[in-house]
Amino acid sequence: MLQSQVLIREMDFTRLAHTWEELAARMKENGDTTTPGKMLQLADKTKRAELNIAFCGHFSAGKSTMINTLLGVNLLPSNPIPTSANVVKIRGGEKAARVYTLNSGVITFDPDTEMEKLKQFAVDGDTVESVEVSYPGTFLDEHSSLLDTPGIDSTDAAHKIATESALHLADVVIYMMDYNHVQAEENFNFTKTLKDRGKPVYLVVNMIDKHIDFELDFDSYKESVEEAFATWNIHPDGIFYTSLAEPDHPENQYELLRSKLSSLIASREELVGRSVKSAAEHLIEEHIQVWKAANESVRQEWESKLDDVSVEGLDQRDAAAVQGALEQAEAEAAVLDKRTEEARSKMEKELTVLLDNARLTYFSTNEAARSYLESKKPGFKMGFLFAGKKTEEERARREEALLADLREKVAGNLDFHFKELMNKLPQAYEIRDEEYNAAVHATTIALTPELLAAHIKDGAQSREYELNYCSDLAGGIKLEYRRVGLAFIEQVVSRLAQQVKAQSEGLQARLNQLRELAQVHSKLAELTAAEQGQREQLQAIWQKGEQVS
């Protein structure tokens, strides 16, 4: 690679590292005490563009022996070094063994002579964070490392945590299995986790010298291994079958494995560039889980409130259903709030239409009114003998004639329809009241001589005057019907108000419950939105790293 290209790649990795440091700072601001440290480890690894090949698997799978064989030097003891991290990193470079402790800083040992001393020192696992061994003359250089992790079948929880805590630093995973334990469930679970994280995973089936060919030919055995992982939807990047006890075993693929490791190291920058971006993205999700866990007690407190409120016919944990029910109940409440006034307005309008359309005066009425008005003129007189008596009798006759005509017209064109309307009004609101109906039926609007006299006006009496008089009479009669009608309407409104009040009380109780549930869901939604906001902020920072070529 040209020097200019080397500089460009170094700048790219430096920019990536700065992005991871920015992510670590943001995570720390959010109160996360674990993930920022991993992100800073990733940043440090990224600055050096260091390729980490992690060896994982069972205690019994021969990981340490395999690593020693690959390196050509016995650096690792057969038993793991008991550190709290319990991950040993081996890289090329100047010969040294370094122990990173919590209390004593960095302690250096001679990897040729003092590895047992290192083990004795590290018995107190709580004080040791990690172990690094550098050694010259292997196929590793100062930019490539092997990670020896604890056995995944360890019963020690700290060992399991150590293995998982190293995965963000692994660019490639070599997963080793004992020939006799390939189909153990933890193998499938662990390798699936690795593949789900986007890690390149190579399987190594070690100790194939245990194979007895007459029981099952080796090709069938290999086929069974591949099918077992495929059943779990696990598709490794390669499978190697090895034997360190019998190097000349005809199926031994040790040299192929060693060659693959060398080719991986040769592709270091490409692998690291892709791996650290994936690791950073996974750490973002890990941080979100930490953030969620920190808020879990608040979430549980709000969720418990959902169980405290029960609304008939509603799943109170369904936020959309609660919101829909609340909107419906509020709409119903709004309708109820307006119901009495809208009913009053509607009934008054129906009464007005009825009165406006009721015709009470015809030609006969006009003629009777003309005769009546004539009898009321000053100087009106009938005959010569007994004129006074005859005049009064004639006036009474004409008055009664007009009243009779009006009564006939009112009875046929107004009174019947008026009572029919008044009786129907409460039915529209499902109100049943026999006493009200009886009162309507018994209603009588008296047409009296006083009514006729009250609408006479001073002045010359012309044909126009007579027509206006008839119109005034009709208006006066209708005004009385309106007064009585409004009184009946008021009774209906009063009954309706009682009905609405009862409905409102029941609805208000439901509304209070729904509003309480809606508030809980709103708080839960705020937590979810805050979580999503955190994720989006971190992903926006991560995108800056993704844009680095």
TrEMBL record:
One of its GO terms (cellular component) is membrane. One of its GO terms (biological process) is mitochondrial fusion. The keyword Cytoplasm does not apply. It is found in: Membrane. The keyword Disulfide bond does not apply. Residues 319-346 form a coiled coil. It comes from the Bacteria. Residues 53-206 form the Dynamin N-terminal domain. InterPro entries: Dynamin_N, Mitofusin_fam, P-loop_NTPase. It holds the Pfam family Dynamin_N. Keywords: Coiled coil, GTP-binding, Hydrolase, Membrane, Nucleotide-binding. GO terms for molecular function: GTP binding; GTPase activity. Its main location: membrane. Gene3D superfamilies: P-loop containing nucleotide triphosphate hydrolases. This is Small GTP-binding protein domain-containing protein. It comes from Brevibacillus centrosporus. The lineage of its organism: Bacteria, Bacillati, Bacillota, Bacilli, Bacillales.
